[in-house]
Write a structure and sequence with these properties.
By secondary structure, the chain is an all-alpha fold. The protein has 17 helices and no strands. The chain has helices spanning about 1-25, 30-40, 50-75, 75-90, 95-110, 115-125, 130-140, 150-180, 185-220, 220-245, 250-265, 270-295, 305-325, 335-340, 350-355, 355-360, 365-395.
Amino acid sequence: MLYLIVGLVLLGIGSNFAGKIFEKIKLPSLLGMILLGMILGPGIFNLIPEIIIRYSSFIKDMALITVLFIGGLGISLNQIKKIGKPAILLSSVPAILEGFTVGFLSMKFLNFTFIQGGILGFIIAAVSPAVLIPAMVNLIMEKRGEEKAIPQLLLVGASADDTIAITLFTTFISLYFSKVSENNISIFQQILNIPISIFISIIVGIILGKISKIFLEKIKNIYLKTIFIFLLCLSMRQIEKIYHIDLYNSLLSIMILGFYIRNFCGDGYKEILEKLNKIWKIGKLYLFSLVGMAINPNVIGNYFYIGILILSISLTVRSIGVLISLIGTELNYKERIFCVIAYLPKATVQSAKAGIPLEMGIVGGEIMQGLAILSVIVTAPIGAILIEATKKKLLEQKREEAII
């Protein structure tokens, strides 16, 4: 345990230092943290102790649930009324269009079957919560895009986007093995799982919000309140991962829990927000560096150029999907362009799912792993840089008192 603690302290110091260096050269600090993790991780120099790698998923979860709950605290009821329909479209249209685009391109350029292409397509199609959510939380803090609830729109859309992409990924894997074993599965039932999963996740968040309200009213110490909320969120995440619940997205439930507490539990949420912001300042050092450790550039192999071509086309189609989702909204052309940019980064899902097809013995699994990792290496830095570089030019800053 001492070895783990010392290793984490050193990693945190190194991650903070790398972030500061990138800030000095006018680049997002998260890029320095990701790069540090990639260099020190198994993909390059392999200098990270095995015990940290073993606990990396749990540590990333702690950081991710913190920033996602903070994001939920940044959404008001009035904003939900503004973003309802476009958030639903953003959660589905871009991911579905991109996933099937990658699938069809894989058939042409990689000689994949449609099912193999679908597996790869819906690994790549998910937007990265690790990159997008912290960026949107920063925008809420800066009051940029608040008048039209743009950060909140992207937060809600991205949370459900992952559910759709992962569900379709597992659906295509099921189709692959059903074909191999000549067993029939219900595609309709698999697709129906998507709205059911989103609905169940929202209901769980609301129910836990009602329960939390009772406890928060009884607990007087702000530190105990914060610990209670943190442990509740962590429990939701671990239950999903341990029991592999297909019809439940803990990340969406956590954001809904934050939304409920912000809107129905009085002004006490502000104190919780203040404490969680302090936790996030430390948590982000580990979230981004550990995401970097999962990136292995060596697996890209001989598919770099064809991968760049596929990604260029698929991201173009994804961007069209974002613009389609925003039809009928009050957003001007600058704000729509920003939404397109914010939906580019990939990291978390791709790093976690890239190796699964290969591990399961799916034909072409090594190619899928390489292209999924390539999508992270290309889009995570480009997306993060563009979000930071364009936010002041494309989004107006609200002058009134901050919402949170």
